[in-house]
Amino acid sequence: MPWNALATVAGLAFMANGVLAQNSSSAAAIDAYIQPYVRSANFAGQVLVEKNSKIIFEKAYGFADREHHVANTNATQFHIASMSMQFTAAAILRLVDTGSIRLDEHIGDFIPDIEGADKITIRDLLTERSGLPDINALPGYNNVLQHHQTPASLVTMIERQPLLFEPGSKFLHEEHSAYNLLALIVEKKTGLPFAAAVKRLVFAPIHLTSSGIDDDFLPDSTRMAHGYEPEGEFELKPATSIHWSAKTGNASVYTTAADEARWVDALFKGHQISASSRAAVLDTSVRVGYGWFKSTNKRYGQTAYSMNGRAPGFASFVLYLPETQMTVVLLSNIYSSATTTIGYDIAALSLGLTYEPFCFREIGTGELKNSTGVFRFGSDFYQPNAMVALTVDGEGLFMHWPSGEASALIPVAKDHFVDRAYWEEVIIQHDSSGNPNALLYGEFRGRVVGGEE
């Protein structure tokens, strides 16, 4: 399932009727909304809401270290996955502002062995329109994560590989490789390791003292949350350990919610970068770029800047609404896409708009077995023409993908579930005899092709 499936969860509804926030600034209302996610082990971490530069909600939930019962606090540090791109982009823009590099400069001046280096610009990398093959999709990428890497070693892995499309012509998918290249360019222009360069260019000037780049050599990691991943419907297990240096440039930052909120203030309201560089970040004519999704959000009736991220054991989300001067930050040490849904709903709650509470329930295996079967989706599905099977395993319902992955489905109503892995709505439809005949997965519909005895 592709990364951009995460963007679809903003409108996910778990109940037929929304709840209208009566007191948009109520900390109690925000906390009550979050609790079901915490109880169901789909969120643990920090939540911060800021409006008009004033914090209206800040709280930590769950455990930083479940095995030793160490609680998360507002000082706990979290890996933020793809939200890291914001800081890589900022380091590049700081170099642009000093005249060290130009946005329309070709990368061949720095990294000549990349296919298309005479066509790809710095701007193409920042807006993820380079056409580079994605390192995360390469065979053996999981093995890459198990060894220390540098920007140079990561870039070497895609050298001389053909481009996927003409540079600058379109956005296809999240380009992790592009931000590996940007990290290497930062090193080449500053003469510093990437971690030291970003500290000097970005973190230090705005006093982000709880933030840094994890290059596998952190001197003190006692404040760092341990990462966990879902197991079954409501359990957790330790996430697979990785070398965060293998995600340098695209997912190697750690921070706190307070530091992230300070960064948003500095980027959008302060003088962290020049007016021309800020204009490039704010430009909504390019939907993706500089570590942000940018669009007019119908739910809020205004422009919205957002980003989410997932990496082994962690999930993150940030939203900035300039017209209402609101920032929402969620950092979690559970690998779950629920973080994005929570963030969007908290913003709606805080603005007095409708939102959908998460209500899960327990159901018996007899009812679950009436939801089993094999369903085929069309060519426009995340995995084209995929056949997925719903089976009962123990006391839970699981969705089996062609890749071999199995997603636990959390019951929220009769024939109504949420895919715990991707936080997508799942509805099972039945024929007049009560047998399953269709599976609705978000906006897609799969037809039954077989059943389970």
Care to describe what's here?
This protein is of the alpha+beta class and 453 residues long. The protein folds into two domains: 1-359, DD-peptidase/beta-lactamase superfamily (Beta-lactamase), CATH 3.40.710; 365-450, Lipocalin, CATH 2.40.128. The protein is built from eleven helices and 24 strands. The chain has helices spanning 27-39, 85-97, 122-126, 141-144, 151-156, 176-190, 194-203, 257-269, 275-282, 338-350, 365-369, and strands spanning 19-20, 45-51, 54-61, 63-65, 70-71, 78-79, 212-213, 228-231, 235-238, 253-255, 288-289, 292-297, 302-311, 314-321, 326-332, 354-355, 373-376, 387-393, 396-400, 406-413, 416-419, 424-430, 436-441, 444-450. The strands form six sheets. It has an eight-stranded antiparallel β-barrel. A seven-stranded antiparallel sheet has the order 3-2-15-14-13-12-11, with helices on both faces. The protein has a three-stranded antiparallel sheet with strand order 6-10-7. Helix 2 (85-97) crosses helix 6 (176-190). The model is unreliable at 1-24 (pLDDT under 50).
